[in-house]
Amino acid sequence: MDPLERGDLLPSMSTSVPGPKSSTLSEQIRGLEAPGINTLYNDQPNIFWHSALGSNVLDVDGNRYVDLTSGFGVAALGHRHPKIVQAIYDQSKVLVHGLGDAIGHPGRLAASSRLKRISPIENTRVYFAVSGSDAVEIAVKTALLYQSARSRRAKPANRILAFDPSYHGLTFGALNLSSRQAFKDPFSTHLHPQVQRLPFGTACETVDSLFRQFGDFAAVILEPIVGREGILVPEANWLADLAETCRRHEVLLIADEIFTGFGRTGRWWAMEHESTVPDLICCGKAMANGMPIAAVLGAEELMQAWKAPGEARHTATFVAHPLACAAAAATLDTLEKEKLPQRADRLGPMIYDRIRHWPARFRELEAVRGRGLLWGLELKSSEAGSRFGAEAWSHGILLLVGGPEGRVAQLVPPLTITEDQLDYSLKVLEDVFHQLSGP
Ligand SMILES: Cc1ncc(COP(=O)(O)O)c(C=O)c1O
Fold it and tell me: Measured in angstroms, how far is the CA atom of residue 168 from the centroid of ligand 1?
């Protein structure tokens, strides 16, 4: 029997958080998995998810939460959306695994044709990836291949500009572009020096001078709204101006829309808020509503840079995985049919109206910012951040508190969250702030 029969419910808590079953499993996992990925944070017992449906998550102790994480922004349609479950099931009856770049299957055309349809890039070609980090690696490789094939430049263009803060993943190439020093320090001897960094939102004149000074930039990579590193929204027109600066210098613009893509911010792509079309788009996370798949979108002219005799120069065993492709095609259809980007666009201002006065009212809260269904609440200290997170969880509201100093609570609900669930969640968070801030 499905203990979560519907996904539109409010929280129901029956034990402390984490409850006794979660605590026992935490003890067991400690003896089985490596620290870091064993789900224990700071070595403390943590909740274990039993099941999830819609915007609800049930833990192994029977506590039901409203999920404001969407599982790292993945379950845009809500967990276990029936159309996606059906698509995975139907595909599993014919082909579960294929031969990646070597042999095709019809499901990948279903996924890539839908990606092409929603891509703002003219004549889009799709390069599938197995994760967001993998997509970032592919985008950077595409830029380097393309730039090295162009002969007009005096020096080969291989420098990349990235911003602080930013998160692009943790595989070596992506790590190089991500900003957080704690992730990079242990491996710094293996990170190459061709990445230049500027603060997110740096005036485009400074970017322009940098491009002039070096003359060998291949690409700029950015998150249109910084996600994991603190939900930062750039000043109006910055994205458009930066795109123009890149164009003038023939530097490729890579938009990492892994977090912001597929309607999260109220448009299919966050770059669209400034009517800006990047050269390459990295996407992942919500692309298949829970199946692991990602992609890079780029114009045919750029993607031609990969053309070479012999075997693929970037691939992976599980690339264009049949189950993930089936889920991706169904996800993209459903996002479109249910008009979920438009829904995020409508709910964003409602959320802002509810929370915009909070920083003036609650002394632990520094700022609120975001767009669509992606919001950050910046607390004054990491200590307040972790107390806020723990209190929210114990009241049945699941959210992650992150950013470089652990001070930004992220509100990333499924795009299908009901207005009741959203309203209730905001009430709980308001109460938690009251409690934290004292009389
Ligand atoms: C903007 C952005 N880029 C890249 C990544 C890395 O994606 P993945 O964790 O699938 O490798 C993430 C993950 O959070 C992300 O938010």
Answer: 5
Q: Is 41 helix (H, G, I), strand (E, B) or coil?
A: strand
Q: Which string of b and e fits 361-399 if b means at least 16 CB within 10 Å?
A: ebebbeebbbbbbbbbbbbeeeebbbbbbebbbbbbbbb
- Tell me, in angstroms, the distance from the centre of ligand 1 to residue 221's CA: 13
| pLDDT of 16 over the 80 cut | yes
Domain 82-337 sits in CATH at 3.40.640.10
pLDDT of 296 strictly over 70? yes
Instruction: Output the CA–CA distances (angstroms, integers) from residue 392 to 49, 388, 399, in the order listed.
Output: 16, 6, 7
Model confidence pLDDT, tens digit, residues 81-95:
999 999 999 999 999
Contact (Cβ atoms closer than 8 angstroms) between residue 175 and residue 165: no
The CATH superfamily of 20-80+340-437 is: Aspartate Aminotransferase, domain 1 (3.90.1150.10)
Q: Please report, for the chain, the start and end positions of each structural domain, with discontinuous segments joined by +.
A: 20-80+340-437, 82-337
pLDDT above 70 for 243? yes
Probe target for ligand 1 pocket from 70, 128, 168, 265, with the most ligand atoms within 8 Å of CB: 168
Q: Ligand 1, atom 10: nearest CA belongs to which residue?
A: 132
415 alpha carbon to ligand 1 midpoint, in Å?
19
List ligand 1's pocket residues with C-beta within 6 A.
72, 131-133, 136, 167-169, 223, 227-228, 256, 258-259, 284
DSSP-assigned letter for residue 226: B
| Ligand 1 pocket, mutate which of 229, 259, 374 (most atoms under 8 A from CB) | 259
pLDDT band at 154, cuts 50/70/90? low
pLDDT at 153 over 80: no
What pTM was estimated for this model as a whole? 0.98
Measured distance CA(277)–CA(271) in Å, rounded = 7
* pLDDT of 378 over the 80 cut: yes
